[in-house]
Amino acid sequence: MDADFAETLACAAPGIEVKLAISFDRMSSSGLKEVQHGLEYLQHVLAEVIGHREDPTANDWAPRWPLNNFLIPGFKLSQGNDLKRFRKLQDGFEYNFTTQTVSCMERLLARTDIDDHRCNSLLKLCMSVLRGAMLLHKASRKVFARQNPMDLLIFMLKDTGHSPSFRVDVIDTIVAATMGSPATMRTFEEREGVATMADMPGVLRGSGVVSVRILAVFNILLGQEEEARQTAISASQTWMEVNPLGQPTLLCGPRHHKLDERRRYLM
After folding, report:
1. Exposure string (b/e) for 47-63, b if CB count within 10 Å is 16 or more?
2. Domain residue spans in the chain?
3. CA 98, CA 132: separation in Å to the nearest integer?
4. What CA–CA distance (Å, rounded) separates 187 from 151?
5. Hey, which of 9, 26, 90, 197 would disulfide with 34, CB 3.0 to 4.6 Å?
6. Which residue has the higher pLDDT, 55 or 21?
7. Cβ atoms of residues 141 and 177 within 8 Å
8. Are 178 and 193 in contact (CB under 8 A)?
């Protein structure tokens, strides 16, 4: 983090709210360096929330907190005061990392005065913040239940000019947004996210890091849908036991045809 920006934060009034307001203001700046500083401070906050503290004034500072641990079955995050305070802040709109970062991404993608490399670097920083915020605050995933934010991710996924590492970041962000969030998953499906992934070159051959990541995503999606299907079947059987002459309707809705639709993409 830039030393001048770190000094600005240090001189700010006590309280994380003031410092976040300064960071969000930097993220909306036309200067790319200011945008970077704002995003880096959000990363710093996320690192502190899980107890990984670094010196924010160091020039080579970079958050190295164990994000992947959140994807390990059975992993539980310590419910410390920092996490509780963070989640309380995220429950509101003003200090919500996800909404502010999505707005930052929209501005970056709309600009034509910056080169692709610099833009992609900042977008990767945005996605890092998004993944951390959504994994720490589940309700923030619903931001991507709206069409426009989800369209941003799918748009970046479709762009064949991006590097494999960039597209992996996009896929990981989609996973963070849809994991345990049925509303976001439905939006992803409705915006043809599954079809977009299936149509990417080499996916079915499983070649390359992007293809492997996509196949893993499909496995997660199919597993979630199968679990929901089994739950519905169990509920239907229970209903029939109580109402033996009734007609079960739980498996007749369009939602339960999604599993077959996804499987068709993989055939």
Report:
1. bbbbeeebebeeeebeb
2. 3-140
3. 9
4. 9
5. 26
6. 21
7. yes
8. no
In whole angstroms, give the CA distance from residue 172 to residue 217. Answer: 9
- What pLDDT band is residue 254 in, cutting at 50, 70 and 90? very low
Q: Enter the pTM of the model.
A: 0.73
How many residues would you count in the chain?
267
Q: Do 226 and 183 form a contact (C-beta atoms < 8 A)?
A: no
Q: Is there a contact between 105 and 153 (Cβ–Cβ < 8 Å)?
A: no
Contact 190, 254 (CB under 8 A): no
- What's the pLDDT at 208? 77
For the segment 74-122, what is each residue's pLDDT rounded down to a tens digit?
Answer: 444 455 677 888 899 899 989 999 999 999 999 999 999 999 999 999 9
Cα distances (angstroms) measured from residue 144 to each of 43, 128, 136, 231:
20, 15, 15, 25
What are the structure tokens assigned to 75, written together? 């992993």
Distances (CA, A) of 86 to 81, 104, 117, 240: 8, 20, 32, 45
Taking Cα atoms as reference points, which of 49, 54, 27 lies closest to residue 38?
27
